Amino acid sequence: xxxxxxxxxxxxxxxxxxxxxxxxxxxxxxxxxxxxxxxxxxxxxxxxxxxxxxxxxxxxxxxxxxxxxxxxxxxxxxxxxxxxxxxxxxxxxxxxxxxxxxxxxxxxxxxxxxxxxxxxxxxxxxxxxxxxxxxxxxxxxxxxxxxxxxxxxxxxxxxxxxxxxxxxxxxxxxxxxxxxxxxxxxxxxxxxxxxxxxxxxxxxxxxxxxxxxxxxxxxxxxxxxxxxxxxxxxxxxxxxxxxxxxxxxxxxxxxxxxxxxxxxxxxxxxxxxxxxxxxxxxxxxxxxxxxxxxxxxxxxxxxxxxxxxxxxxxxxxxxxxxxxxxxxxxxxxxxxxxxxxxxxxxxxxxxxxxxxxxxxxxxxxxxxxxxxxxxxxxxxxxxxxxxxxxxxxxxxxxxxxxxxxxxxxxxxxxxxxxxxxxxxxxxxxxxxxxxxxxxxxxxxxxxxxxxxxxxxxxxxxxxxxxxxxxxxxxxxxxxxxxxxxxxxxxxxxxxxxxxxxxxxxxxxxxxxxxxxxxxxxxxxxxxxxxxxxxxxxxxxxxxxxxxxxxxxxxxxxxxxxxxxxxxxxxxxxxxxxxxxxxxxxxxxxxxxxxxxxxxxxxxxxxxxxxxxxxxxxxxxxxxxxxxxxxxxxxxxxxxxxxxxxxxxxx
Amino acid sequence: xxxxxxxxxxxxxxxxxxxxxxxxxxxxxxxxxxxxxxxxxxxxxxxxxxxxxxxxxxxxxxxxxxxxxxxxxxxxxxxxxxxxxxxxxxxxxxxxxxxxxxxxxxxxxxxxxxxxxxxxxxxxxxxxxxxxxxxxxxxxxxxxx
Amino acid sequence: xxxxxxxxxxxxxxxxxxxxxxxxxxxxxxxxxxxxxxxxxxxxxxxxxxxxxxxxxxxxxxxxxxxxxxxxxxxxxxxxxxxxxxxxxxxxxxxxxxxxxxxxxxxxxxxxxxxxxxxxxxxxxxxxxxxxxxxxxxxxxxxxxxxxxxxxxxxxxxxxxxxxxxxxxxxxxxxxxxxxxxxxxxxxxxxxxxxxxxxxxxxxxxxxxxxxxxxxxxxxxxxxxxxxxxxxxxxxxxxxxxxxxxxxxxxxxxxxxxxxxxxxxxxxxxxxxxxxxxxxxxxxxxxxxxxxxxxxxxxxxxxxxxxxxxxxxxxxxxxxxxxxxxxxxxxxxxxxxxxxxxxxxxxxxxxxxxxxx
Lengths: 650, 145, 357
Fold this sequence. Notes:
The structure holds three protein chains of three kinds. By secondary structure, chain A is an alpha/beta fold. The mean pLDDT of chain A is 94.
């Protein structure tokens, strides 16, 4: 039908295929198939002799194409396509028929399995019969990377990228970089000060000539494709000029507004004009438009009047910039699981029930208590502190199914920090089990249990309520089988980690997918852990899943390495299996335009036109077109029809 | 229903599997050696959203006893939203086929992820079991070859 | 009810003033009482226009033909074409605009409200009353909730509901929503319903419901449809009359494939033929199901396919089935808006999912 000379090669895969499928029978039936001019079977097609046999057969029989009936195309499609190329054919002149995973391994009856292997092989022959040689599409590269989110992941990725000589555009939603790590006190298991290790990196980011930092900014729109993205970034109005601001604090002194300080997680107050942290980068005061009395000299204007440097201007508007980048690293981090869902633990209702990040601020030397662990209600040092693990985590029925991974470790650290400050205090930890996989982690937890004498109670807490100036905690110690009641001064909850609030939006903007829990999804759970499904978009840090600082840094470096690898190529290639319009038939109805998830199709003079480099070849347009005016190269409806017939032929 | 009681009727299923999830799921079923009936022949497509109703009608008209379209779970589509488009389109195909009197069991859709080898095997097993009592599909097909 | 004279004046004015280059309308046909579509270009032709219960045709079809003709002749124009549009014709025009086939400024829509009446179903007429010979009729006119039929010597006044097309009885929008000028009024709900003895409106999808109640099993439905499909002679009248079937090539009809002097033998041989031309049951099913699916979200229920079917296949059932699913499951109303994305080029998170394993 197609006039091609096709060879079919059937692999025994040792006994893996041949144990069930009669490979000789498959080969002999395929020999009678239209277009097939030679067939053979081999013990291991993927072995050197097997591959050489394919190459030799192509040359000897002047084949136009080969079908290899073997294992899943995910394993050896590339191998055999390289063979085809080595023999002078095109990569698309080779098709794989998966008769192992989809046949030999899942069926016992040799007769049935052999028949199915024949049908599968026949489908591949028909697909090949109509496919055309295609060459990858060549595109240029912008050697610049957008990093979204400037927590430790974004910072690490930016520094690695910049060190490799790439330009970096680092975009952060908040007024300072540093992210969650900036709010931590000391880090497990070494108890080194979080800010002390982080702030040098932050300064380096600020100083690095290759890194352009945009704080108070968000990515609004991303278009284009790998190597050539256009990103639209919206920057909030900057009322304070960082170059003029002298950090004198005069403005904050006169500001009449007092609101909870989000950087201290509500544990202290701030003014409408303030500095998030003393180490904030960029080092400047920030005017928060939402709490300011109105940016209007008639209403207030005190900060502007008092600023001797003249750094404050009210007449500023948000601005939108469009930048070109070649790759994107997404490092948008995590939030804690919403306290509104956790009524039974009293979070938000009882003043002395805190979440883990709030407790970190209490322990932090730069925090509201200057590092003294004082409970919020009366600023006394607590004597009895209850730490509750797995709050919201590992509770598929009511909350989050996943393990938040770091809580076992930071709770141990929290308890240790408490015992260091209050040696005669009592610390209790409710846990389900302890997960302390990591270098030095298990030893750390053991030390907390044994040397610091923290009481570990295996069980869930059923109730937490205010009782006078105490917080009463009811729980069960499942090891002793006894109910436990603790009169605590302070309760600290290890809340589940969840993707940060903007994750869904940035995923949509970047056209990358999220897993069932809302974390950004990697392209392959094992083999492509830092890539997203969209080429050129890489993932780093807790936006992809719960992880601790070393893992975050490692992943950020991996994402940077992937981006560096990508952008080190002088040209990029794009899969040529893209949609193609048969212009004569197109009526410009726009269905394909509306269907395309990549905005790859537009109308030009009333006809659909595909931008090849944007098209991923999904075929949604094909199935939506009423006029058969669009098809994906090498997945044509004609091929589909012949494959369907091949399945059903007896 | 089979004409010859010695060769019992074996339903013939055309299974359109998306490359990223369901085909990978069927690979996992293989790797895990989960056994299921050999009645379904897979045709790999880039995305469930690329399956044109015409493919399904043609499969039935060429004598398929059952047609399966399997894609990624909602939200997991490699192409972001192809499975949503497929769901709407193929719902109408299913409704229409039932409307003209085709047995509802004959057309099936499933979401099978790359991690759901066991589910893939179950989908096929169930499908074959549901098709057996119906006998050969001779309503839409021209002549049974 | 619209005075036909008003309609003629409007058309004449538009042509005289040069606002439109032509007007698509109806005139008295060669077959006595029945109207036929006409395209008039001169003001004096306006006097030929008619408006009566025999104006069944969906004139949007002629808009499609106008575009085709202009395309073939590479004829450009800066003036719109006028078109008379009942509620259903106007919905068809909306779909054509939604699909970018016709631009809003290319048409001047003279909306005609059917008010509380509708179009005559000639087949119903045959058995409607003793002694009426449709061949002998000379005119048919609206009169309140009745149709007045006249032959040379006699007049009959029949309650409209008894002889009105089913699709008109089921119509929800007898008054066009999109128009440049409107003749007639948007009927009030009360008027639409008619009287208890002579209702002029039935439930939406009433005929579909009746079918589903009678054929309430897969076997019964198949019994019905297999006989219907067996009758199809593949004359493609349904396709020819449908304003939505404007494809250059019909993907399920190989004879519509364009062949030019450049078309090679190999190209011809490799043309994808989903469906063979033979009028076999299987190919007929393939054709009609493809058509129903291609019309999903696009069919605006003008009922023309069913009217012109020479073997009387109840094609509206297939199309209204799709329309009911679009409305009820997807909240999508065909022909309601130019701006929305097409039914099958869009989705909602809460589309039906329980049929999926």
